[in-house]
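Regression report. Comparing outputs from two consecutive submissions.

Submission 1:
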Amino acid sequence: MSERKNHPKNNGEKPAPAAPKKRAPRPNAEQRARLQLEKRLGFSLPKAVTPIGPVLQARAAAVALRLEAAYPPPAAGRVPFLNFANPYECVVAVALSAQTTDDNVNKVLPTLFGRWPNAAALATADQADVEKVVHSLGFYRNKAKNLLGMARIVVDDYGGEIPARMDDLLRLPGVARKTANIVLSESFGVTQGIAIDTHVYRVSTRLGLTRAKTPAAAEGDLCKAFDYEEWYRINHDMIKLGREICDARKPLCGQCPLADLCPRVGL
């Protein structure tokens, strides 16, 4: 005996019309320009936290021109402030530079690379031994732990070679966007952002190019303010300006090539 299927009774009522689908809002001119730039570059841009309009972009363009004139690149190209010769050494050097000076880092690198010349060697190191080598740089326990974690992931997941993609670099302990940007640009010739250290953050804040509360948050503002072609160079030039003139405590504003452009925010 076949089962009878119970069908809902139709009392002559028409079914309620389906709710119309909401259309996604169309991107405005600024959003379209961002999407076009991301398509041209092939990667997503870091998000700006400060309103960056034509006025600030014009100021950034003038800043880039002035700094290029003040710090012309040598014929052999710009020389990194840290001493490294390959991607592995670059990751290690930049990771160790947090909360200390490049000069201090450069002093310990020969010993460190002499004992652990590549990721495979570092992956087998004892943390206590690494701590002794980097002790003078501050936060030595955390830095040693991150170096060992980085080396082990590189060996296990990337065949002992430092990866050349932003997403992969950000997987490594102790590597945030600043370090990743430097590794990509200096070791692989790839520019995907602007490395923001304390000098770049201080200079760009005083110039009114960012209102970000942290260096990491300022990257999107500077990427929007400066043309892509300036991203690599502006990091080097702002670091030089920050070291030589735009000091944290006693800026030499009278000697600054940007004096007439600078609103001196925070001073």
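Submission 2:
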Amino acid sequence: MIRPLVVAHRGSSARHADNSWPAFEAAASEGADAIECDVQATRDRVIVVRHDLTIDDRLVADLCFAEIEARAPGTVVLADLLAFAESTPIDLLVEIKDPGAAEAVAQMIAASARRDRIVVGSFHGPALAAVKATAAGLRTSFMIGSVAGPEELVRLAAAFRADGVHLCWETRAARPHRLLDLTIIDRLRRAGLAITLWHEEREDELRAMVALEPDAICTNTPAILRRIVDAHCASSAAGVERDVAARDDPPEQLVTAMQSTREENR
């Protein structure tokens, strides 16, 4: 059984301004396993946590950090978020919005004591390749908005040396979980890829996504997804125990599965 990680999309962003300290702190208190954030570089090469590439009709890349702070007080910088993740502790999924910042972001994360608990994502494949060239040990995830088959996903990940795929299909269907099935998940996993799914807030859709057992799911409502993941795991554990109890001499692999499930639910 795979317990999907609860990834707070830009923090607990349904209740707080996205990519803000209140959103990040709430994500941790609501049981998120990881925080997803967006990063880009200012003109003076400060790595800021911000989704939009512009502010007041000016490119973030054309403004120095002091100008950013004047226009958006309280803007989080990646260095501080890395320190927060280490002290909390909580994992990070860092999306590179500005490909030109890839090398600087990789250097900063590689220097973090929590680098093994951080994934770098991007829709820009060459940015991920630049991350690997800078710090080969960092984990990366190729983000893709277009619906593609498993073989194409495996090919794209290999092309950019990505360790995983992040499927951003939330707008591709009314019920986007139907774009996937367990066969596709299995094919990606056999290729050695970690599987992260798009952000979703509808509870019925979240339950369907959890049942697919990807490695991680993004959401603006981490407390809700935490409850759903925990309930799914508890139900799965109970099912395994019922199977064992129904047999006089249960197979060794079934006992092992039950013990593993208990460990995951601790």
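Expected: both submissions complete independently.
Actual: both completed, but the second showed a warning that disappeared on reload.
Relevant detail on submission 2: The chain is about 40% helix and 20% strand.
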